[in-house]
Amino acid sequence: MHNEHEISLRDVRIGSMPLLSVCQDGYSLSETPVLGFDNSEVLARINECHPLTSIDGSFKSEILKTVFNIGLKKTDEKPLWIVPNSIRHRRYSLLTNGGKQSMAPELRSPGSALHRQFAGLIKRKDEEDILNFAKKYGLLKRHPVHNLVFEKRNSGQQLQLGESLIWWKEEIGDLAACLELWDMVLRNDEKLKNTVLWHRDGVTIRLGNNDVPLVSRANINLLDRWSGGDARGPALYYLSLEADKRLLNALTPKLLPFQSSEIYLFPDSLLATIWLMFLLEITGRTRFIQCHSCGEYFDAPDPRARFCSTRCRMRNYRKHRTRKSMGRKKVKKDKRV
């Protein structure tokens, strides 16, 4: 029976929270979380304003995880940080258009495929590509601790905390793995059967070299929801869990009285915005395909769409026409020979 009290995700509008911001003076890669300061001084300053340990001293602070690489996967990489070059930030403006879905202009380019842009960074080995993404969209999270200002004694220049580049790479890798799994679901790819592994004690998701237990003896009753050997169902369940985990306590519902009193969901950080866009795609609210001309992903409500813009469509038409013309010339030349 239909539950009339349920609210579909399609009925909820998405807004861009003013908390999203970009440093006006750009970002740099640094060996410390703040340019010109050593780690011990940074730790002392932060601990003075925001104690870094939890009550039991277990170092579970989100600040430590995102800023100081503590609690993350072990790596032999040289730790680097993406740091703002000043404390001056430009905030995203909240746009409204007749009560319709609103997004900041930065989040629409190209075609609101921000999550796919972010995941695509995994294919680029140059750290400058990640830095350029930060320069365009800002840091992934803006904690209250980021408001702590560091001032250089000799010059008086004011700087703020950055974010761990290692942590950025882990977030990029996690989303890229989820998108790869989602694309296999969309294509009904045969590889999906080698990714969703059924066994006697449950179901495991194999992502790269990692096996993630999805169903075990503790929640074995979940197997009743799918037919034996089904790969699509467990894959979608895993993707929903990953999105829910990233968006926990990261969305704020607000009533906008000047927009027909509609309810909007506001992501509180860039990372939450990225995962929200991924959630919108896997729930069918958006449909991203790759442009046949420029290769960029774009939202295509029409399943027949092949190009992201008129410019790309005309570019492809001229390219196709040129090939035909060259083919006819070659045929005529061969006939003369």
Describe this structure in words.
The chain folds into two domains: 122 residues, no CATH class; 125 residues, no CATH class. Helices cover 35% and strands 17% of the residues. It is built from nine helices and 15 strands. A three-stranded mixed beta sheet has the order 1-13-12. A three-stranded antiparallel beta sheet has the order 3-4-8.
- SSE pattern, N- to C-terminal: EEEHHEEHHEEEHHEEEHEEHEEH
Structure summary, number of beta strands: 15
Instruction: Name the average pLDDT.
Output: 77
Biggest sheet strand order reads 1-13-12
Q: Proportion of β residues?
A: 15-25%
The level of helicity is: 25-40%
What is the CA-based Rg, rounded?
24 Å
Secondary-structure-based class equals alpha+beta
Query: Which overall shape is indicated by the principal axes computed on the Cα atoms?
Result: globular
Low-confidence stretches: 1-10, 93-111
How many domain modules? 2
From the N-terminal CA to the C-terminal CA, the straight-line distance is: 76 Å
Report on the biggest sheet. 3 strands, mixed
> What's the total helix number?
9
